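The record is passed on directly below:
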Amino acid sequence: MSRYLSHNHSDSTRMIGTLYFLALLSSAMAWGRVGLWSKGSARNGTGGDMCTCDAFLPSTTFPVKDLVVVEQTAVEISHKVELEMGKLEDYEIKLTSYAEKIMKLSAEINIMEKNPDDYNDADFEDKKVEIKQMEALIKELQLSIKSSTTVFESLHVQITAMEETLTRLEISYDKSVVLKTRREYIKVQLELEECERRHQELFNPDIGSCAHTGIIKVSKPIVSQLNAQLNSGFKYGGWGKDSKPIPDRESMYWYSGYSSASIVDIRFYIDYKNLILRNHFQHHNIHSGWIGTGNNFVIRDNTLYYQINSPFAVAKLNFTTMNYQNRVIPGASPRFSYTGSPNQNFDLSADETGLWVTYATEESSGRLIIAKINEASFGIEEEYVTSVYKPSLSNAFMVCGVLYAVRTIDIQTEEIFYKYDTKTKEESYMSVLFERFQEKFSSLDYNPTDQKLYMYNDGYYVSYHLWFNHTTEATMQPPYLVS
């Protein structure tokens, strides 16, 4: 039953889950008002009274107006979120109630089907009426959710503007009022993982399933924060989760960034909370002879898979055993990279079906090649040659054995425009647009454990929710329609 409801309302309910928290980020930023002026008196040279004002400003140039605008917006959003969250709780209650009713109705109809002679036409008509009533209730819920989604989309625009203002003030003015607000902002962010997990479990029960025909929608960018070094110059790197986590590390996050396209170290965080607090539990400096290059590296089974240049190869570094290996891929060329990204010759990806690497060769004339990696032997199992020219792409990633190629549309917009299915060896064109947070990004990878895209965008941690076109098998009709 949960699959049925997720199928009919996934766009709206996931949007509510995601945008609810974005709105919540700002609700904690209702700042205490700063006292700006106090009146006093003084005597001028002529002996008369003169009205004076004492300015209690952090500095004579601090943009107080910007702070006031953010404060007012935060209070306004907080009130709207309270109203919408009340509705969300009501939606969850209704979903549970509808699921119970449909399961009960399904059981009753199954009994009737097995013993049709025990029932008359009136009995069957009664069940038809109950089915129509349930359909009407679900349609009513869908319209309600759609209404709330519109509200949250509006709030998202306001919150984005607030975050930009806050970031600008923090960079420009190292003042206590901004730092206090940043601490409040981080405090609320710590609740993101739990909130997101709650909605993911409720509305997306099919994590890990490939019973769909592909991506149909990408959410707005979810910006976590600037990198662990708080350095906007660290524009190259990546972040995310282990695609095949070892026991007790299912919630772990990792990050690696640098001022050039080099992989020199990597940090591990127990969970999202510690990622936001920049509190790593492990920090590995990569051995000088093992330093990597490029940015599309992944971690799978507590092992880093990445590119090296000496020799030009794919490497793996197991953080459990600290064993290192590299593998030269015959024909792979160091001449073909993604547009706007240096040294992106090998792109490692991990999805529901395993580990992959993409590259181009002189023989393929720069066309992208997909290769499946055998994790045990670290060898190539099979190769697939696509028709897309790698230097024309901004990035690519794998989902359920299907490659999705991405290109830049304009300064703010990317497009998933092409896919290649390694199971059928068929390729096709599509158009799914999504936003970047900043002008350039260095990595874009899919993680099968939560069905998200992770982007390292000009030094910021950014992620996206994905929506899939589920097949009949994955989202079968309600039980009462199944024979």
Remarks:
- The CA atoms of residues 237 and 295 lie 5 Å apart.
- Confidence is low (pLDDT under 50) at residues 1-61, 472-483.
